Amino acid sequence: MLGKQFRQLITNDHLRISMTELAHVTGVSTSQIRYWERKGYISSKQSDKNKNHYFSFLTLFRVATIKYFLDQGFTLATAVKKERERQELGKIFRTFIADQVKAITQLGPKKGEVALGTLANDPEKEVYAIVDQDGTRLYSRPVSKDRG
Predict the structure, then answer these.
(1) Would the pTM count as exceeding 0.70?
(2) b or e along 59-70 (b: 16 or more beta carbons within 10 Å of the residue's beta carbon)?
């Protein structure tokens, strides 16, 4: 249930930002953004009334990633190619988060538990993470009838 909600949030096409906001957040000029759109590297939705361009949340990450590779000295074509390769990893990560995060519980100030589900090779055990100021640590425990 929670995984479905995460997937909807991550892939929600209604979360959009303007070209000006995209430029401001990523540090890429609006003229570059227009050029990249003309070349087909990114896409936008346009409002019917005034034809303003609005970009998805995922496009923000695409633009930031392309800029990162450009800043590393790669050509635009290579930066786009590398971003597309990274995009595949992003899809895998989003699927993992959407499918595996079963519950998040607050354990105290700045401390929580993330339930990740049962082990495939031992369904009697579940994996969970403790997240606090020291970082994230993974653990396993027997499945509880209360949690399972």
Answers:
(1) no
(2) bbebbebbbebb
